[in-house]
Design goal:
About 75% of the residues lie in helices and about 0% in strands. The two termini are about 45 Å apart.
């Protein structure tokens, strides 16, 4: 007689794949530190213009500080990736936090005794240098903290945290500035950098991977994930990038990888065009609400705050969207929707409708941004990720200031309606153009 089983319960299948992100205390610590850092940044974004305005009463002086900060960021972007790929990235994050703590913290200390405006013109651009170094290094460490299949979800969490900080931070900074002055708000920002610098030392990171070989990631000869090598979303075969040869050679190594990649190349070019068209959109919305619709500063604040809800929504929707559609169709779809929303802005004379459309635009750009960052992190070799990120940001942001000047000047000359129709229609054309490139054909991240 066969032996009877003592239990009819079927053994539970062992869990496969990485543990959920929220179950990882290392990831939770990193996410909390980034949320704290974003909250501190929002304090500076409010406090620095207020300090300049209190001292000078001049909008032009405020713009000068902003311009110097932007210039410092662009110049730093040329070498930030090289630095991030050469040094220990965790130490780089801690060092940039310490430097920003010292630079921002000196302003409220000096403001206790005097109010030298030159200090802001000096400190703020230098702090922007360290801020750009931090941002590039931060992108490179995400794949070293989470598993490859969790990169998209981690980025969605981080974007969501930034959205919450962007919505609540300025309001809190305004309360602090009203109660104790803008310098006190900067002191809080400096304190967040100090906490972040200490906390990042306790975040565990895997070492950077080596350069890829010809067969990296291939399941069968000539094919990976069902795609031929000529069309896959990985690196070109047989290439080794990032050989040491000076800053210029290392920067060009990142540029070569970006240019030879069948998806990242069209993504960079098309995103540069989208950035040119939309970089000045916030200014157009502010102008439309104040001049076109006749509302005050508080209404502008409500509209922009409502827009951050779109970014928060993107952090919840992007994972499901990319799993169903894949990277290319998701990117194209959200940019078509964003273009239509921008076009509708010019036809809208109702403030609540403007707020909804702004939220739609930020939802779409949030989904696209999370997808593109995740794709770069997934397909770029770890030792090149800093340089590829630096080249990518520098390239697609280079036309932004010129586009902002052109779009805002056009809005002042011809009105918001025609400009929004033109910008929105152009964004739709750019998005549809992507369908003819490797970007539109990419199905990276799609799940059956």
């Amino acid at each position: 007689m066969a032996r009877r089983e003592t239990s009819r319960r079927t053994p539970r299948a062992a869990r496969t794949g990485p543990a959920p992100l929220w179950a990882d205390p290392n990831y939770r610590l990193f996410l909390a530190l980034q949320c704290l850092s974003a909250l501190g940044d929002s304090f500076s974004h409010v406090a620095i213009p207020l300090l300049v305005l209190h001292q000078t009463g001049s909008v032009a002086q405020m713009g000068l500080v902003t311009g110097l900060t932007g210039l410092a960021s662009i110049v730093t972007g040329l070498f930030a990736g090289v630095v991030a790929d050469r040094v220990d990235r965790r130490r780089l994050l801690a060092l940039t936090d310490v430097a920003r703590c010292a630079l921002i913290g000196v302003v409220p200390l000096v403001w206790l005794f005097a109010t030298p405006l030159w200090l802001l013109y000096t400190v703020v651009p230098v702090a922007a240098v360290f801020s750009m170094l931090f941002q590039v290094a931060y992108v490179t460490v995400v794949p070293a903290i989470v598993e490859p299949g969790q990169i998209l979800k981690a980025n969605s969490h981080l974007f969501g945290a930034y959205a919450v900080a962007s919505a609540g931070g300025p309001m809190l900074a305004g309360f602090v500035a009203a109660a104790s002055g803008p310098a006190a708000a900067l002191a809080i920002d400096a304190a967040t950098f100090a906490v972040s610098a200490v906390g990042i030392l306790f975040v565990r990171m895997r070492p950077t991977g080596a350069a890829p070989g010809p067969d990296r990631g291939s399941g069968r000869d000539g094919e990976r994930d069902g795609q031929p090598d000529s069309e896959r979303d990985g690196e070109p075969d047989g290439e080794r990038y990032g050989e040491r040869g000076g800053v210029r050679a290392e920067f060009l190594a990142g540029a070569r990888f970006l240019w030879r990649h069948p998806v990242l190349r069209p993504l960079t070019v098309l995103l540069a065009l989208v950035t040119f068209l939309t970089y000045g959109l916030t200014d157009v919305v502010v102008y439309h609400v104040k001049q076109g619709l006749g509302h005050g500063d508080s209404t502008v604040g409500y509209v922009l705050t409502a827009g951050t809800l779109g970014t928060l929504g993107a952090s919840f929707a992007v994972d499901r969207m990319r799993r169903r559609l894949g990277f290319g169709p998701s990117w194209v779809a959200v940019h078509v929707a964003a273009g239509l929303a921008v076009a509708a802005l010019g036809l809208t004379g109702n403030v609540p409708a403007v707020a909804v459309l702004v939220a739609v635009v930020l939802f779409c750009t949030g989904v696209a941004g999370i997808c593109s960052m995740s794709l770069r992190q997934e397909v770029t070799p770890g030792h090149l990720l800093g340089r590829v990120t630096s080249v990518f940001w520098t390239t697609h942001n280079a036309l932004g200031p010129l586009g902002a000047a052109a779009v805002t000047a056009a809005a002042g000359t011809w009105g918001v309606g025609p400009v929004c129709l033109g910008v929105g229609g152009s964004v739709v054309v750019v998005a549809l153009t992507a369908t003819t490139t490797g970007l539109g054909r990419s199905r990276a991240g799609r799940r059956a």
